[in-house]
Amino acid sequence: MADKTEQTTFEKFTFKPETKLTDEELKDRVLYTNLIGGAVVTAWGVAFWDYFTISPVMGDEGWFEEDTKYGGADKLGHLYSTYLWSLGFSSLYEYWGMENDDAMIYGPLTSWIFQGLMEVGDSFSESQGFSYEDMIANTIGAGFYYLREKYPSLKEKVDLRLEYLPNFNNNSSGDIFTKYDSMKYVMAVKFSGFESMNDSFLKYGELQLGYYTRGYENEIDYPQKERIGYVGIGINVSEVLKEMGWLKTSKVFNYYQLPYTYIPFERDFNSNSYIPPYSRGR
Protein backbone atom coordinates (compact mmCIF):
# COMPACT_ATOMS: atom_id res chain seq x y z
CA MET A 1 0.00 0.00 0.00
CA ALA A 2 1.38 3.41 -1.01
CA ASP A 3 2.45 5.78 1.72
CA LYS A 4 0.22 8.75 2.37
CA THR A 5 1.49 11.90 0.61
CA GLU A 6 2.92 14.39 3.06
CA GLN A 7 1.37 17.84 2.79
CA THR A 8 3.56 20.84 2.06
CA THR A 9 3.88 23.71 4.54
CA PHE A 10 1.67 25.86 2.31
CA GLU A 11 -1.02 23.19 2.17
CA LYS A 12 -0.94 22.85 5.95
CA PHE A 13 -1.07 26.62 6.42
CA THR A 14 -4.09 26.89 4.11
CA PHE A 15 -5.80 23.88 5.68
CA LYS A 16 -6.02 21.96 2.42
CA PRO A 17 -8.21 18.91 3.12
CA GLU A 18 -6.49 15.55 2.78
CA THR A 19 -9.76 13.94 1.68
CA LYS A 20 -12.80 15.31 -0.12
CA LEU A 21 -15.02 17.28 2.24
CA THR A 22 -18.77 16.86 2.44
CA ASP A 23 -21.08 19.79 1.72
CA GLU A 24 -21.71 20.13 5.44
CA GLU A 25 -18.00 20.25 6.22
CA LEU A 26 -17.45 22.88 3.53
CA LYS A 27 -20.24 25.04 4.96
CA ASP A 28 -18.67 24.69 8.40
CA ARG A 29 -15.42 25.99 6.96
CA VAL A 30 -17.27 28.95 5.45
CA LEU A 31 -18.75 29.69 8.87
CA TYR A 32 -15.37 29.46 10.61
CA THR A 33 -13.80 31.67 7.94
CA ASN A 34 -16.39 34.36 8.62
CA LEU A 35 -15.87 34.10 12.38
CA ILE A 36 -12.10 34.32 12.05
CA GLY A 37 -12.44 37.24 9.64
CA GLY A 38 -14.64 39.06 12.14
CA ALA A 39 -12.10 38.49 14.90
CA VAL A 40 -9.26 39.80 12.72
CA VAL A 41 -11.23 42.93 11.76
CA THR A 42 -12.06 43.60 15.42
CA ALA A 43 -8.46 43.14 16.57
CA TRP A 44 -7.09 45.34 13.77
CA GLY A 45 -9.70 48.02 14.42
CA VAL A 46 -8.94 48.15 18.13
CA ALA A 47 -5.20 48.34 17.44
CA PHE A 48 -5.19 50.89 14.60
CA TRP A 49 -8.64 52.45 14.06
CA ASP A 50 -9.80 53.38 17.60
CA TYR A 51 -12.71 50.93 17.63
CA PHE A 52 -14.97 50.90 20.70
CA THR A 53 -13.86 54.28 21.95
CA ILE A 54 -17.35 55.82 21.61
CA SER A 55 -21.00 54.80 21.30
CA PRO A 56 -22.15 53.91 17.74
CA VAL A 57 -22.51 56.89 15.40
CA MET A 58 -23.44 57.41 11.76
CA GLY A 59 -21.00 59.09 9.42
CA ASP A 60 -22.21 61.37 6.61
CA GLU A 61 -19.36 60.95 4.14
CA GLY A 62 -20.94 61.84 0.81
CA TRP A 63 -19.85 60.34 -2.50
CA PHE A 64 -17.57 62.05 -5.03
CA GLU A 65 -18.15 65.69 -4.11
CA GLU A 66 -15.25 68.12 -3.99
CA ASP A 67 -15.63 68.74 -0.26
CA THR A 68 -15.61 65.07 0.82
CA LYS A 69 -12.73 63.61 2.82
CA TYR A 70 -11.10 61.74 -0.07
CA GLY A 71 -12.98 63.04 -3.08
CA GLY A 72 -14.68 59.68 -3.55
CA ALA A 73 -11.51 57.61 -3.85
CA ASP A 74 -12.41 55.84 -0.62
CA LYS A 75 -15.75 54.73 -2.10
CA LEU A 76 -14.01 53.13 -5.06
CA GLY A 77 -11.54 51.68 -2.57
CA HIS A 78 -14.38 49.91 -0.77
CA LEU A 79 -15.85 48.70 -4.05
CA TYR A 80 -12.54 47.35 -5.32
CA SER A 81 -11.42 45.77 -2.04
CA THR A 82 -14.74 43.92 -1.65
CA TYR A 83 -14.39 42.77 -5.25
CA LEU A 84 -10.84 41.53 -4.63
CA TRP A 85 -11.73 39.85 -1.33
CA SER A 86 -14.54 38.08 -3.20
CA LEU A 87 -11.94 36.64 -5.54
CA GLY A 88 -9.76 35.57 -2.62
CA PHE A 89 -12.49 33.85 -0.65
CA SER A 90 -13.98 32.17 -3.73
CA SER A 91 -10.56 30.85 -4.70
CA LEU A 92 -10.00 29.58 -1.17
CA TYR A 93 -13.33 27.75 -1.13
CA GLU A 94 -12.62 26.15 -4.50
CA TYR A 95 -9.18 25.15 -3.20
CA TRP A 96 -10.95 23.35 -0.36
CA GLY A 97 -13.11 21.48 -2.87
CA MET A 98 -16.23 23.59 -3.21
CA GLU A 99 -17.97 23.57 -6.59
CA ASN A 100 -17.50 26.72 -8.68
CA ASP A 101 -21.21 27.57 -8.68
CA ASP A 102 -21.24 27.57 -4.87
CA ALA A 103 -17.91 29.36 -4.49
CA MET A 104 -19.07 32.24 -6.68
CA ILE A 105 -21.88 32.81 -4.15
CA TYR A 106 -20.15 32.12 -0.83
CA GLY A 107 -16.98 34.00 -1.82
CA PRO A 108 -18.57 37.43 -2.38
CA LEU A 109 -20.98 36.81 0.51
CA THR A 110 -18.06 36.26 2.88
CA SER A 111 -16.32 39.33 1.46
CA TRP A 112 -19.46 41.44 1.95
CA ILE A 113 -19.81 40.23 5.55
CA PHE A 114 -16.11 40.84 6.19
CA GLN A 115 -16.32 44.41 4.88
CA GLY A 116 -19.65 44.96 6.61
CA LEU A 117 -18.24 43.98 9.98
CA MET A 118 -15.51 46.51 9.39
CA GLU A 119 -18.16 49.16 8.79
CA VAL A 120 -19.97 48.17 11.99
CA GLY A 121 -16.66 48.55 13.81
CA ASP A 122 -16.26 52.00 12.25
CA SER A 123 -19.49 53.04 13.94
CA PHE A 124 -17.68 52.72 17.28
CA SER A 125 -14.76 54.85 16.04
CA GLU A 126 -14.48 58.59 16.71
CA SER A 127 -12.50 59.06 13.49
CA GLN A 128 -14.81 56.97 11.27
CA GLY A 129 -18.50 56.34 11.92
CA PHE A 130 -20.86 54.00 10.09
CA SER A 131 -21.20 54.96 6.43
CA TYR A 132 -24.11 53.72 4.33
CA GLU A 133 -22.19 54.93 1.26
CA ASP A 134 -19.41 52.46 2.07
CA MET A 135 -21.92 49.64 2.45
CA ILE A 136 -23.43 50.44 -0.94
CA ALA A 137 -19.95 50.44 -2.49
CA ASN A 138 -19.21 47.10 -0.79
CA THR A 139 -22.41 45.64 -2.19
CA ILE A 140 -21.61 46.80 -5.71
CA GLY A 141 -18.13 45.28 -5.46
CA ALA A 142 -19.42 41.89 -4.30
CA GLY A 143 -22.25 41.97 -6.84
CA PHE A 144 -19.96 42.83 -9.72
CA TYR A 145 -17.67 39.91 -8.85
CA TYR A 146 -20.64 37.53 -8.82
CA LEU A 147 -21.95 38.78 -12.17
CA ARG A 148 -18.49 38.59 -13.74
CA GLU A 149 -18.12 34.96 -12.64
CA LYS A 150 -21.71 34.04 -13.49
CA TYR A 151 -21.48 35.36 -17.05
CA PRO A 152 -18.18 34.40 -18.75
CA SER A 153 -18.83 36.81 -21.63
CA LEU A 154 -18.75 39.71 -19.15
CA LYS A 155 -15.51 38.39 -17.63
CA GLU A 156 -13.93 38.21 -21.08
CA LYS A 157 -14.84 41.81 -21.81
CA VAL A 158 -14.54 43.79 -18.57
CA ASP A 159 -11.92 44.07 -15.82
CA LEU A 160 -11.94 46.10 -12.62
CA ARG A 161 -8.39 47.06 -11.64
CA LEU A 162 -6.31 49.05 -9.21
CA GLU A 163 -3.21 50.93 -10.28
CA TYR A 164 -0.87 51.41 -7.35
CA LEU A 165 2.42 53.21 -7.78
CA PRO A 166 4.06 53.86 -4.40
CA ASN A 167 5.40 57.32 -3.75
CA PHE A 168 8.26 56.80 -1.34
CA ASN A 169 8.47 60.56 -0.73
CA ASN A 170 4.85 60.56 0.35
CA ASN A 171 4.40 62.63 3.49
CA SER A 172 0.99 61.18 4.30
CA SER A 173 0.36 59.50 7.62
CA GLY A 174 -2.42 57.13 6.55
CA ASP A 175 -2.14 53.35 6.55
CA ILE A 176 -1.44 51.39 3.37
CA PHE A 177 -5.16 50.95 2.69
CA THR A 178 -5.83 54.71 2.46
CA LYS A 179 -2.87 55.96 0.43
CA TYR A 180 -5.18 57.23 -2.26
CA ASP A 181 -2.56 59.64 -3.62
CA SER A 182 -0.79 56.55 -5.00
CA MET A 183 -3.88 54.82 -6.42
CA LYS A 184 -6.05 54.88 -9.51
CA TYR A 185 -9.21 52.85 -10.10
CA VAL A 186 -9.78 51.52 -13.59
CA MET A 187 -12.53 49.75 -15.49
CA ALA A 188 -11.16 48.26 -18.70
CA VAL A 189 -13.17 47.09 -21.69
CA LYS A 190 -10.99 44.46 -23.37
CA PHE A 191 -11.15 44.18 -27.16
CA SER A 192 -10.09 40.53 -26.93
CA GLY A 193 -13.50 39.72 -25.48
CA PHE A 194 -15.27 40.72 -28.69
CA GLU A 195 -15.42 38.12 -31.44
CA SER A 196 -15.02 40.73 -34.18
CA MET A 197 -11.61 41.77 -32.81
CA ASN A 198 -10.35 38.54 -31.24
CA ASP A 199 -8.53 37.39 -34.36
CA SER A 200 -6.81 40.67 -35.13
CA PHE A 201 -4.06 42.81 -33.63
CA LEU A 202 -6.78 44.84 -31.92
CA LYS A 203 -7.17 42.09 -29.33
CA TYR A 204 -4.13 43.52 -27.53
CA GLY A 205 -5.92 46.82 -26.96
CA GLU A 206 -8.54 48.07 -24.55
CA LEU A 207 -10.62 51.09 -23.61
CA GLN A 208 -10.19 52.36 -20.06
CA LEU A 209 -12.32 54.48 -17.74
CA GLY A 210 -10.47 55.67 -14.67
CA TYR A 211 -10.83 57.85 -11.61
CA TYR A 212 -8.42 59.04 -8.94
CA THR A 213 -7.80 61.89 -6.53
CA ARG A 214 -4.72 63.76 -5.39
CA GLY A 215 -4.16 66.15 -2.50
CA TYR A 216 -7.02 64.96 -0.30
CA GLU A 217 -4.88 62.62 1.73
CA ASN A 218 -1.56 64.47 1.43
CA GLU A 219 -1.52 68.26 1.24
CA ILE A 220 2.28 68.55 1.34
CA ASP A 221 3.16 66.76 -1.91
CA TYR A 222 -0.13 67.83 -3.52
CA PRO A 223 -1.09 71.38 -2.47
CA GLN A 224 -4.06 71.41 -4.87
CA LYS A 225 -6.92 68.98 -4.40
CA GLU A 226 -7.81 67.18 -7.63
CA ARG A 227 -10.56 64.77 -8.66
CA ILE A 228 -9.54 63.32 -11.98
CA GLY A 229 -11.47 61.18 -14.40
CA TYR A 230 -10.06 59.86 -17.62
CA VAL A 231 -10.73 57.89 -20.75
CA GLY A 232 -7.74 55.99 -22.06
CA ILE A 233 -6.55 53.69 -24.78
CA GLY A 234 -4.25 51.00 -23.41
CA ILE A 235 -2.45 47.73 -23.90
CA ASN A 236 -4.13 44.62 -22.52
CA VAL A 237 -1.07 43.37 -20.63
CA SER A 238 -2.86 40.19 -19.61
CA GLU A 239 -3.57 39.29 -23.24
CA VAL A 240 0.04 39.97 -24.25
CA LEU A 241 1.42 37.73 -21.49
CA LYS A 242 -1.13 35.02 -22.26
CA GLU A 243 0.00 35.05 -25.89
CA MET A 244 3.58 34.57 -24.64
CA GLY A 245 2.52 31.50 -22.66
CA TRP A 246 2.66 33.13 -19.21
CA LEU A 247 -0.87 32.08 -18.32
CA LYS A 248 -0.69 32.30 -14.51
CA THR A 249 1.16 35.63 -14.52
CA SER A 250 -1.28 37.07 -17.04
CA LYS A 251 -4.19 36.65 -14.63
CA VAL A 252 -2.65 39.13 -12.17
CA PHE A 253 -3.14 41.94 -14.68
CA ASN A 254 -6.87 41.34 -14.82
CA TYR A 255 -6.89 42.93 -11.36
CA TYR A 256 -3.79 45.16 -11.31
CA GLN A 257 -3.30 47.98 -13.80
CA LEU A 258 0.34 48.25 -14.89
CA PRO A 259 1.34 51.94 -14.91
CA TYR A 260 2.35 53.67 -18.16
CA THR A 261 0.70 51.10 -20.44
CA TYR A 262 -2.05 53.44 -21.63
CA ILE A 263 -2.62 56.96 -22.95
CA PRO A 264 -5.11 58.82 -20.74
CA PHE A 265 -7.23 61.83 -21.65
CA GLU A 266 -7.80 63.35 -18.22
CA ARG A 267 -9.95 66.07 -16.72
CA ASP A 268 -9.74 67.55 -13.24
CA PHE A 269 -13.29 68.09 -12.02
CA ASN A 270 -12.16 70.53 -9.32
CA SER A 271 -10.63 73.03 -11.74
CA ASN A 272 -12.62 71.90 -14.81
CA SER A 273 -9.39 71.72 -16.77
CA TYR A 274 -7.84 69.23 -19.17
CA ILE A 275 -4.62 67.52 -18.07
CA PRO A 276 -2.15 66.46 -20.80
CA PRO A 277 -1.13 62.77 -20.56
CA TYR A 278 1.61 62.16 -17.98
CA SER A 279 2.27 65.90 -17.64
CA ARG A 280 2.26 65.68 -13.84
CA GLY A 281 4.85 62.94 -13.35
CA ARG A 282 2.51 60.41 -11.73
Overall number of domains: 2
Regions with pLDDT < 50 over 5+ consecutive residues? Answer: none
What's the overall geometry? globular
Within the largest sheet, what's the order of strands? 1-2-3-4-5-6
Mean pLDDT: 88
Strand count, sense and barrel status of the largest sheet are: 6 strands, antiparallel
Helix and strand sequence: HHHHHHEEEEHHEE
How many distinct beta strands?
A: 6
**Measured on Cα atoms, how large is the radius of gyration?**
21 Å
Beta-strand percent range: 15-25%
Gap from first CA to last CA: 62 Å
Structural class: alpha+beta
Helix content bin: 40-55%
Characterization of the model:
With 282 residues, the protein is α+β, with helices and mostly antiparallel strands. It has two domains: 129 residues, no CATH class; 127 residues, no CATH class. The chain is built from eight helices and six strands, in the order ααααααββββααββ. The chain has a six-stranded antiparallel sheet with strand order 1-2-3-4-5-6. α3 crosses α4 and α4 runs antiparallel to α5. The chain is globular, with a radius of gyration of 21 Å. The termini are far apart.
